[in-house]
Predict the 3D structure of the following.
Amino acid sequence: MSLTGHLEQLIGTHAYDTTGDGIGTITQIFQDTESDEPTWVAVTTGCAPGTSSLIPLAAAQVSDGQLTVVPTKQAVTDAPRLDIDDILSVEHQQELLRHYGLEGGDGLEGSDGLEGSDGPDAVIRHEEHLDIGTQRRATGTARLRKRVVTETQHLQIPVTREVVVVEREPISADEARTLDNEDAIGEEAREVTLHEEHVTVTKNQVPVEKVRLRTEEVTDTETVSEQVRKERVDTDVEDRREVTDC
């Protein structure tokens, strides 16, 4: 049966290969801009959410509202994908044609009223993503003040003092004759003044260093744990051939 006139009826149904394996849900049909003949069909397989797999409609058949295409399910799974909201470009068409071993294909676009539309059984899945940021805040203050402390210093200082040294020198006979009449036996005392150095200490204040406060940034790593929710999509289909697992 020809595809012409059955475009809208096929949206939301399943596409099958010639062995009867279910490929995916039909979401969009592309047709030639000049002849209006349907040329590509987009299906969602569940392998890559947000994308569609495109299948050429050459030699495709419609029977009892079911579309059967020539490429195998595996060939469709391995084909280049198209984002659901994107328009089928010429470059993407050529890439698909090379993948399926076909020729030609210029001037294709989405059929009127169907471009980017979802099938009636399509659902939008949502999930929560964490948005992580940092906020600068004050954590404390630092003050610079000085105080006086007392410490004891021990220094070795050399000091000089005088001591009495007794020296005895023998008198010669000639010198003795000159001294006989000058010095008589008797008591005599002589004084010698002794001197010594005493340590004197004076203290002077002198600048020794400058001390200042400044800040610098260092980077640490913190671990953040938070629960996020996501939606899961389950299928409940009586005919398991209509479910495509990737």
